[in-house]
Amino acid sequence: MQLPTGGKAPAQVPGSLESPEYDPHKHRNRPHPTTNAETLIHLLKGSLGTGILAMPNAFCNSGLVTGTVATVLIGILCTYCLHILVKAQYELCKRLKVPILNYPQSMKVALEQGPAIFRPLAKYAPVFVDSFLIVYQLGICCVYIVFVATNIKQVADYYTTPIDVKYHMLILLLPLILMNYVRNLKLLAPFSTLANIITFVGLGMILAYVFDDLPPISERELFGSVRNFSLYFGTTLFALEAVGVIIALENNMKTPQNFRGWCGVLNIGMFVIVLLYIIVGFFGYIKYGPEADGSITLNLPQGDAMAQAIKVMFAIAIFITYALQAYVPVEILWTTYIEHRMKKNKLLWEYVCRTGVTILTFILAIAVPRLGLFISLFGALCLSALGIAFPAIIEICVLYPDNFGRFKLVLLKDIGIIIFGCIGLIVGTYVSLVDIVHSFQ
C-alpha cells in the first residue's frame, strides 16, 4: 500500500489512543476542496436518488409499522457506523502522521494493528474493500440507467410507438459518457444543487398524488413476512448508506472537522434523509399498496401531464447524479490500479477509464433491467459489509487491545454489529438473487 505524503509511521503502541500532536485535517491539500454547504448538497443528492423512490416498495415488503421503526433503526445504525469509520480513519491518520487515508488503506492499516487473527488478512484488505466499493457504485450507476430509461419510456410510449427500454438506454449512453468526463467534485456541486432542487420539487408533486384520495390504513399490512423483510432491508440499506460517496465527500472537505459532531454535516444530512424516506415510504405504500413499483414514479398515471413532468424531472435529476456516483469507482480504478502504470498520455487514458466504466454499467443495465430487485441485491450484498460490518472491524482493530471500555462493552457492541451485517449480507443477497432468477422465468 502506498500511503499519502506525510512521512513514515511513528512508533506507536498498538491500540493506544495517545497520538502525537499531529492533526491530519490541517495537513490536507486537496486541489478542489468543497465547503460544508457543498458537501451537504452532495450528501443529500447522493442519498435522495432512486432509493427514496423505492421506499413504498420497501414498505410493501415490511409493512407500515415494521417499516417505520426499522427505517429509523437502520438510519441510526448507518449513521453510527459512518461516525465510527470516520473517527477511526482520523485516529489512524494521526498515528501514521499522514493527512488522509481512503477506506481500503484504513482497513489495511487497522488490520495490521489489530488482533493477531486479523493481521494475515491485511495485505488482501485493500483489494477486498475496493471490490465491494466498485461493485456497489457500479450497481448504483446501473440502477440509475434503468431508472432514467424506464421513466422516459413511460412518457415516450404515450406519444409515440413504444420501443424496448433497451433502446432508451442506448440513447442515454453518449450523454452519460460525456457527463462522466467531469473530473472533480467541485465542478459537480452546481449539478448536484440543480438535481436537489428538481428532487425536492418532484417529491412535493409526488406527495400531491399520494395524499389525493388516500385509502385508509386498515387496507394495508402493518407487519410484513420475515422473508420479504430481507428485501426491505436491502432496499433501505441501498437507499440510506451511500458509504463510498460519503467517505469521498469527507476526504474532499475544506473543513473536515465539521463533518462529524451532533450538528455536523453527516448528522444533519442523515436526519433529513431518514425523515423523507419514512414519509415517502409510509404514505406511498398506503396509496399504492401491493402495486407499489420499484420506483413510485412508475405508479403515477401514464397519461397525466403532471405525472409525465414528474417522471421527466426525476429522470433529469438522476441523470445528473450519475457522474457523482461514478466518481468513486473511477477514482479507485484510476488512482489505485491504472495511473501509475501509464507513462504517457495519462489524461487520455483517464478518459478511456471513465468511458469504460460508463459502458460497463450500460451493459449490466441492459442485462438485468429489474429495478426493484437490482436495488435490493446491491444494498444487501455490498452495504451490509461496507456500511455495517467493516466499520465495526476497523474500530475493534483501532481500539485493540485495551481501549474497549468497562466490561469491554465496545467490543461486544462491535461484534454484534458485525454479526448483524453478515446476516443481512447472506440472507438479503440470497433472497434477491432467487427473486431475480424467478422474475426471468
From TrEMBL:
Q: Which UniProt keyword terms apply here?
A: Membrane, Transmembrane, Transmembrane helix
Q: What domain of life does the native source organism fall in?
A: Eukaryota
Q: Where in the cell is it found?
A: Membrane
Q: Give TM regions.
A: 64-86, 127-147, 167-182, 194-211, 231-249, 261-286, 306-328, 348-368, 374-399, 411-433
Please tell me whether the keyword Endoplasmic reticulum is annotated for this protein: no
Cellular component (GO) terms are: vacuolar membrane
- UniProt cross-references to InterPro entries, sorted A to Z: AA_transpt_TM
Domain named Amino acid transporter transmembrane: which ranges? Answer: 33-433
Alphabetically, the GO molecular function entries are: L-amino acid transmembrane transporter activity
How would you describe this protein's topology in the membrane? Multi-pass membrane protein
Q: Where is this region: Disordered?
A: 1-34
PANTHER family found in the cross-reference section: AMINO ACID TRANSPORTER, AMINO ACID TRANSPORTER TRANSMEMBRANE DOMAIN-CONTAINING PROTEIN-RELATED
Name of the protein in its database record: Amino acid transporter transmembrane domain-containing protein
Name the species this protein comes from: Trichogramma brassicae
